[in-house]
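Re: weekly structure request thread

Next one in the queue (384 aa):
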Amino acid sequence: MRPIKALRSLALALACAACALFLFTALTRGLAERRLTRALRDLPNHDFTAEILALHNQGRISEALDWACYVTNNPALPGQSAASNLVARLEKEQTSLWLQADRAAKGFITGSGNSVEEMGGAIASDMVVYGDCRDLLLQGYYRITGHEADAVVASLAGVGLLTELIDAVDWAPAVLKAFKKTGALSQRFGEWLLAACRRSAQMRKIDPALKQVFVDLKRLYDRLGLARTASVFRHADNAADVAFLAKQAEMHPGEVYRFLTTASSDGLPLLHRYGDMPRGFDLISLATRKGSPGIDLLRKGGELRYVTIYARYSERVLRTLRLERPQRLLHSLAMRSASVCSAMWAAATLLLAFSLWQLSALVRQLLPSRHVQHTDIDFYKIAS
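Done, posted below.
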């Protein structure tokens, strides 16, 4: 009887634990989020005037104008008068035909520059073959004379010549080359890109993974434009990061750009953590308005971060069981090996036999107790 009681206790304990875990997950789902929102709202808003001036000094006029307009469109942010003056000044510089032509010509000839016009000129030179030939000759000269050559630029120039007749693909290597020259490609992504270009050269066609990066790059460009795409792209280390950024930018282009610019190196991991939450972008927008203190608080996750992590992983376990992922894993293992399939059948048979044996033991234990109970009642009747 003791094994039966132990099994029943174990089953009851497991059922109670599952129910408690389900209730705990439901109750704590929004608690940490509310605590974090209150903590972010208590922080003072950040003054972005210094960041706007820094972008202007770097020649990134369109990005500086975007930030200045962001400040003027949010009256709660400090530095409204300075932002209004900067908007007028930056719009005048951006719409000047002489300055635009000068920067575009410089980008076309040299293939470098931080502004939109310079990058546009560099991309235009690649579209007419001149840019790719210029970069190949320049990198070859660097290599011959002992200077440091950029293998990524040379590889992209080769891919650009390979895809010259395909306009839909040819502009993407030109854009990536412009990003590399302006420092908008991370070292890890440059290494991945170099390997993908070499595979394309060996196959004499575009590598499928590289082609998908080109598609995701176009998605980013359509939503963010050239300058903001360059700023966002520097956070990507591989093709999966580019696909994730393109997905998020399609739904929240301004929030993704401003958050990654403010968060610097920690931006992409934080975007992964909060981007898929139901109200994650509300937290991201609020943290962006607070500047570095808001990003730090978002990184810490608030007072109940560990509770949130526990609830999140508990929810994943329940979702995994509901989606029958363990069953599918066992099925795939059984289909791959006949010995594994036989072992699983034997284990299932033994478990079923053990459960039936325990059930029969429970029935045998219950029947004598009822017989003893009836005997005791008859004895009391005779005695009375």
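Residues 49-304 form one domain. The chain is about 80% helix and 0% strand.
Next request, please.
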